[in-house]
Amino acid sequence: MGLLRLLINDPLTFILLAVPLIYSIIIHELAHGWVAYRMGDPTAKLLGRLSFNPLKHLEPIGTLMLFIFGFGWARPVPVDFNRLRDPRLGLIFVSAAGIVANTLLAFTAFFLNRLLVPSPSGVLAPLLYFMAQVNVMLAAFNLIPIPPLDGSKILIGLTSGSLRSSLLGLERYGFFIIIGLLYLGVLDPLIAFFRWMILALIRLFLP
Fold first, then answer.
1. Is 58 helix (H, G, I), strand (E, B) or coil?
2. pLDDT value at position 63?
3. Angle between helices 87-116 and 124-142 (to 10 degrees)
4. pLDDT tens across 103-118, in order?
5. Which of 29, 41, 107, 194 is catalytic?
6. What gap in Å lies between CA 150 and CA 141, rounded to an integer?
7. Residue 124: which domain range?
8. How distant, in Å, are the alpha carbons of 87, 136, 142 from that of 112?
9. Would residue 29 show up in a list of annotated catalytic residues for this protein?
10. How many domains does the chain have?
């Protein structure tokens, strides 16, 4: 169900889902920019993108897609990988940063939600539940190794030769490939596997 339909049918659930979703996407992008800055590239900082202000990150078409279809995107934080102290290692760390940030947010939400049980928590418990699920899904989705998703960039940093060249060559078509595969449901098993993997990792520290 798209967020727009949810807003009409269930405004409270819309708020509980939309706020964590938007800020989870923003924190994902902030993590890329912050790690890039720590590794030598100040591009995002100089452009004012290391900010929690949604207006700095939301992209009109991506936001519209999010509200209509429940699938969208933010403006990618600009990173000049050539300015990183170690471009290859930087590509891996910067790309992984968003996934790690979403996993940590999911862990925090699960942890706080556990603290609330069995205490009365009102609206906070479902908010934390949505936040946890949204961040697990964002992390799982971004692990898909198809450009321009983070999983492909991590793989590019770890590989060389023909596989690396093939991934780089897919960059211009990657978005359309992802949309098509999502529509056909081809990516569902892979997303489910990554989701299971992330939840298993969280359970190691939060049994």
1. strand
2. 74
3. 160
4. 999 999 999 988 876 6
5. 29
6. 9
7. 3-205
8. 37, 15, 24
9. yes
10. 1
